[in-house]
Design goal:
188 residues, mainly alpha, two-stranded parallel ribbon, 9 helices
Length: 188
C-alpha cells in the first residue's frame, strides 16, 4: 500500500523521515526554536534538503546551537567555519548565526521567553490549515511578516517573511500538511 505524503517530500528517505517525524510537530523549547530559526535562515536560496543533510555538521560547528558559545565566535572562528565543507560556506550566513545568537541572548537577558514570544504570533497554539494541495500553501502570511519585522527589529537576520513562514511550518506553529497526507490531523 502506497503512503501519501505532502507533495514536496519526494522519495529521499531522509526527507521522508523528517516529514513524518519532525516537520509540523509543535516545538516549544526556546533553544531548539533558536536552532531551527537559524537553520531555516541557512536555507535561503537553497533547497531545505541541502540544510537537512548538513544539520549534524551545523550542530557540531555551532556548539549544538548554544547561543552563549556562538555569541563568542570571532573573525578567527568565522575564518575556520569558512573552511568547513560540512556547512554552507557563506560568510553572511555564518555571521547571521552569530548575530542571531547575540540578539537571542539580549532578548532573554531582558527577561523575555523566546518560545512565548514566537508562539504569540499564532496565539500560543498551532494554527490548523486545510490545504488540499501544495499550490494552496502560501509562501508567507501576515503572521510571518509580523514575526519577520519583530525579529529584524531585535537584531536577527536571515529572517524574512518567507523564511519565517517555513520556520512556522517546521516547528508546528501552523499545520500545513495537506489533507491527504498521512501526517494531517485536524486538531482544530
Amino acid at each position: 500500500m502506497e503512503v501519501t505524503r505532502c507533495a514536496w517530500v519526494g522519495q529521499d528517505p531522509i526527507y521522508q523521515e523528517y516529514h513524518d517525524k519532525v516537520w509540523g510537530r509543535p516545538v516549544y523549547d526556546s533553544r531548539e526554536l533558536f536552532e531551527k530559526l537559524c537553520l531555516d535562515g541557512q536555507q535561503a536560496g537553497l533547497s531545505w534538503i541541502t540544510i537537512l543533510k548538513k544539520q549534524q555538521n551545523y550542530e557540531a560547528a555551532f556548539a549544538n546551537f548554544e547561543p552563549k558559545i556562538i555569541a563568542t565566535f570571532d573573525e578567527t572562528k568565522v575564518a575556520e567555519l569558512m573552511l568547513n565543507p560540512g556547512i554552507v560556506r557563506n560568510r553572511l550566513k555564518i555571521n547571521s548565526i552569530i548575530k542571531n545568537a547575540k540578539a537571542y541572548l539580549a532578548f532573554v537577558e531582558q527577561g523575555h521567553d523566546f518560545s512565548t514570544f514566537l508562539w504569540g504570533f499564532v496565539g500560543g497554539s498551532p494554527k490548523q490549515n486545510h490545504f488540499q494541495s501544495m499550490e494552496q500553501v502560501p509562501a508567507q502570511t501576515p503572521e510571518s511578516e509580523a514575526m519577520s519585522k519583530a525579529l529584524k527589529k531585535m537584531g536577527f537576520n536571515f529572517v524574512g517573511p518567507t523564511i519565517c513562514y517555513a520556520f512556522m511550518q517546521a516547528v508546528g506553529m501552523v499545520n500545513d500538511h495537506t489533507t491527504d497526507c498521512i501526517c494531517f490531523q485536524d486538531k482544530s
